[in-house]
Design a protein that fits this description.
globular; 2 strands; homodimer; DNA-binding; 11% strand; mainly alpha; 110 residues
DNA sequence: ATATGGTACTTGGCCATACATAGTACTTTT
DNA sequence: AAAAGTACTATGTATGGCCAAGTACCATAT
């Protein structure tokens, strides 16, 4: 039971929300997402991101197309499916509720 | 992969934070916490709360004393240890960072 | 042409937490 | 004595983040 471990637990689910959101703004591939997540101080590593993308794709929330790159192997560029858009909307509400609930508890000083 | 499942995932870790916070405000026992969590719309059930309290206690973050009840079996009243207080402070920062990071990403409309 | 280093993605296994479910123990009510 | 209610315990399952090792392709240096 240490802080680092709890930080990991806190990220669960939230990451999914953030990634769907990033993709909703336009075609991106994994490294784009990693860069944005890192610059927002949301710690993520490859071993987390890639399996997550695969999961979301298998669930029908994402689709991708291969695009050639000038500096390396081809890349998977992801976009949201309609189902993905709906799911993102649902997640949005869930996240807002969760933040509100937490505020309610942590601001309560009785 | 459904919404309900993701809600569960999002709660992971955050619950720990909320519970430590509730206990930090004074002696409480499990049903007190359950009531407050429910009224804040943070869905939790017995089967989640009790094991969590045991875990936190074994980690040295909580301690409890038995108190007789007028209407039923005795209760465990919990308080934070010093270690628990420090841990809660750390969690506070972690949570705030996480919310900020998420805001940064979800408000980014490029 | 071959070797080296970097980029992009894949896979298998581990661990921690939330939850469902069933069960124990004690008290009060009928 | 039986039934109902309260407080707590124990076991097993599912999921997601992460580590670590590995594959494959490209560009550059030797």
């Amino acid at each position: 039971m240490n802080l680092e471990n709890t930080q990991v637990q806190m990220r669960k689910g939230i990451l999914e929300y953030c990634i769907l959101h990033i993709i909703s703004r336009g075609e991106v591939y994994a490294s784009d997402m990693l860069e944005e997540l890192t610059s927002a101080k949301m710690i993520v590593v490859e071993g987390t991101l890639y399996p997550l993308l695969t999961r979301l794709k298998n669930a029908g929330l994402l689709e991708y197309k291969w695009v050639e790159s000038k500096s390396g192997p081809p890349r998977k560029y992801y976009t949201l499916t309609n189902m993905g858009k709906n799911f993102l909307d649902g997640l949005s509400d869930t996240w807002k509720d969760l933040v509100l609930s937490t505020q309610k508890i942590t601001n309560n000083s009785k």
